[in-house]
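User:
Can I borrow your eye for a moment on a structure tokenisation matter? Would you put together a sequence-and-structure record for a protein of your own picking? Please set it down just below, with no commentary around it:
AI:
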Amino acid sequence: MEKIYCFGEILWDMLPSGRQPGGAPMNVAYHLNRLGIDASPLTAVGKDYLGDELIAFLRSKDIDTQFVLTNSQPTGQVLVSLNQKNEPSYTIQAPAAWDFIELDSNALSQLVSSAYILIFGSLACRNVVNREILQKLSNKAALKICDINLRAPFYNKDLVHHLFSQTDWIKINHEELALIASWYQDDLHTEQEQANFFLHTFPGIDLILVTRGENGAAYYDREAHYSHPGYIVEVADTIGSGDSFLAMFIFKALAGIEPQECLKYACAMGSIVATHKGATPVVDIDNDLRRLMSN
């Protein structure tokens, strides 16, 4: 199986209950490793104690930190507030160390010398430095997976259009899908219409995963679509639920499992993480999945 690199932000989520490691690409790498997949963050931290603690956290989880770079910018932080449903909203520091994932020629050559899967998000592309590096990496990747995270004011139509044109798989939530679709046409009223529009507008996209919060998720490709209603759980917060969802879907898909079954497991994984605080909880995956999915 190809090596997986998760390109983008690593940071501290500053929660009301205290700070927790976070950043969507790092969260995906964390959960993939918990599932037994070799996934490494490709990111940057500052030369400060917050950066040292993030590296120590990754190493304590046996996650490869070879491409967790350091630079003179501060380690990323995000102020997180929760609504009555424990759904988060974010105030994101800028600039941060992860805005400058600057690979030298030797590191870049080492990365692109063999096949790999590249997972990347839209937020890390707010800086031209990252956009240029990501372009070089995506040119060589065997599989490219784009995790859309629209965080105002760090996105626009041109950026999203470019990312859609460079990827094989998209993971996006239903609100983001509807918003982006409205930039192109005003008569795409249903989720299926919106997903089908992008599948036919961007021929490189093979599949789209749409998360729906408490209402589960959906899978779309050019031949079929599936949905899952989700699982009823007591939510601590939803931070990182979508990241764990994506990690589980990738894990099952790479094992050759059918998409409908992948979707079921991915929804369960996202629900389990939502019962814990923060994006990177320690969970008993096998037992928790078995218990939730048997109900």
About this structure: The radius of gyration is 18 Å.
